[in-house]
Amino acid sequence: MDRYHLTLTIEGRPVMRGWWSELKTAERKFAAWVGERGGVAGTRITLTDEADGGRVLKAWPDEDR
Description:
Largest sheet: 4 strands, antiparallel
Structural class: alpha+beta
Strand order of the largest sheet: 2-1-3-4
Order of helices and strands: EEHEE
Number of domains: 1
Shape: globular
């Protein structure tokens, strides 16, 4: 199983998922998904480290928004 998990949800429903073994690749995909789908209302994109108990590495939009 690959370590880094990317999830795209819209209005709380999973739309896309991806897994990568390299963090750089997963971060590049995260940025691409934000650019491609970040403008859709209700979108949430998270990048987690599955080897670290599912710790969230990046999330869009930020919780601070």
